[in-house]
Specification:
Elements: E1 2-8, E2 11-18, E3 24-29, H1 40-43, E4 51-56, H2 73-86, E5 92-97, H3 99-110, E6 116-122, H4 141-163, H5 173-184, H6 188-200, H7 204-210, E7 215-220, H8 228-237, E8 241-246, H9 253-256, H10 258-270
Parallel strand pairs: 3-4, 3-5, 5-6, 6-7, 7-8
Antiparallel strand pairs: 1-2, 2-4
Helix pairs in contact: 2-3, 3-7, 4-5, 4-6
């Protein structure tokens, strides 16, 4: 069931609500530059087990409105709050991939984990996607600057090059094309704006320390986008967290090792 939810005047975001009658609910927040369809291989399986799966398209991506502004983690986490309140969600699992994971971390801090019983982070872009003087474990800032430049110069080429970095195991050309098309559904300005947020956002270091719900951290050892040391930093900062390394796995672990991913997620939800 697809619906639109207003998050501020003249801005609506698209929400896919699968199996609303499910016994337990998980709200998925996608990464850059995709949309809720990235979790297709979870949506195909988890509802069979009785789960309610909700996927949103963050503003600027997928079927959601694409305003000029609002691409910082504060506003994006506020959008999640609007969805949670509109759907009257309680005691749900909040799961986020890559930038979506960073947005979830901000939601937990900014909204005191409103409604969240458990948190799941998948290759999350926290505490920092890029290297900083006090955090040398991320990407070189030049990589992100080149992504921004590429977005404005030749966005399809940039998306193709990014797509070459996200998998450790080979995928078919058809599947790579599908991921590429999901990226093209985003607005160019929102694609660049999120990348700019990576450069300037430093508050996640403190946000991680505020999380007080059981947290599952799933991260590929061979992730070339959100490097594995980010997961270690998450584990060291979040109380009551568990880190599960995915060997021979890249950034898109929910497809790269989807069976293991689904198994770990279900076990966490049932614990």
């Amino acid at each position: 069931m697809g619906i639109y939810i207003g998050v501020e005047p003249h801005v609506k975001i698209y929400v896919e609500d699968i199996n609303p009658a499910g016994n337990k609910t998980i709200l998925f927040i996608h990464g850059w530059p995709g949309n809720h369809n990235l979790f297709e291989y979870q949506f195909n399986q988890l509802p069979k087990m009785g789960y309610r799966c909700i996927g949103i398209d963050c503003r600027g991506f997928g079927l959601s409105d694409k305003p000029w502004t609002g691409y910082d983690y504060n506003r994006l986490s506020d959008d999640i709050r609007c969805v949670v309140e509109t759907l009257n969600l309680h005691n749900f699992v909040l799961g986020g991939h890559s930038t979506g994971g960073a947005i979830c971390v901000r939601y937990m801090a900014r909204h005191n984990g409103y409604g969240v019983a458990k948190l799941a982070l998948f290759a999350a872009a926290a505490p920092s996607l890029v290297q900083r003087p006090y955090f040398p474990y991320g990407l070189d800032k030049k990589v992100v600057i080149n992504i921004i430049k590429g977005t404005y110069k030749d966005r399809p080429k940039m998306l193709r090059e990014f797509g070459n970095t996200i998998f450790y195991n080979p995928v078919t050309g058809a599947f790579a094309d599908w991921i590429f098309q999901l990226g093209l559904q985003a607005a160019s300005w929102s694609t660049a704006a999120i990348a700019n947020t990576w450069l300037g956002e430093e508050g996640l270091f403190q946000d991680l320390k505020t999380i007080n719900v059981p947290t599952l951290i799933l991260h590929g050892i061979n992730d070339k986008v959100c490097l594995y040391p980010l997961a270690v930093a998450q584990k060291n900062s979040i109380r009551n967290s568990r880190l599960v390394p995915f060997k021979e796995c890249g950034h898109f672990l929910f497809y790269d090792q989807r069976d293991k991913f689904n198994k770990e997620l279900v076990q966490f939800m049932e614990a």
